[in-house]
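Name: hydroxyacylglutathione hydrolase
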Amino acid sequence: MWGVHQVPCLVDNYAYLLHDVNARVTAVVDPSAAGPVIRALNEKGLSLDFILNTHHHWDHTGGNVELKRKYNAKVVGPRADEGRIPEIDISLREGECWKLGEHVMHVLDTPGHTRGHVTFYFPDSGAVFTGDTLFSMGCGRLFEGTPEQMWNSLSKICHLPDETLVYCGHEYTLSNAKFAMSVEPQNEALSSRYEKVAELRRKGLPTVPTSLGEEKSFNPFLRPFSQELRKSVHLNSSASDVETFAAVRLAKDRF
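Structure predicted for hydroxyacylglutathione hydrolase:
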């Protein structure tokens, strides 16, 4: 048995509690602040065994120190960035597997947003935790990486099964949807999703998780093959996927 509990943090961050009922093991993904995580654990009568960080940014690691000291939890993070992950105990890289209770976690190196970013994939639970690499209807800014790196990272995630649920690090979906509509307005799947997202946000409800298959149908950063999208960013059909991705990312940065 497996449970994922979404924990809103700061202004628009999400942390996630992962609980293996049988093994009685609990982890939190990307705790930007300790307080909301502690309250969520108390509400569920849980302790904390592990802290999983996708990358080093403070709004994903800000709760590490306090949570580690309170619960004696171990911090798990990317080997490529272990020097910047507060209190890290276990460093992992692509191809390595790690177990949370009875559930195997696969590690994907997904640089682009930062040079050491990783993504955590639980195949038996159909869940992927993408941090700031892939958002619903968006992707992370390229603070430390190149368009080639980010496109390769997104491509890795896209090779996972379509039914995989995407748990990302921020509630950015409505602003992402507005940009997506500006570059691919004739996309019917996008138009339908935009209406649903707007309604969810009006009600104060989260738009995450979303399925990977759905994201492929309306996330502009996963759709370099779209001729409408290419036209919107002033590219022709001979442009490569990386060139198209880079143009879309630049357009979003200026949106």
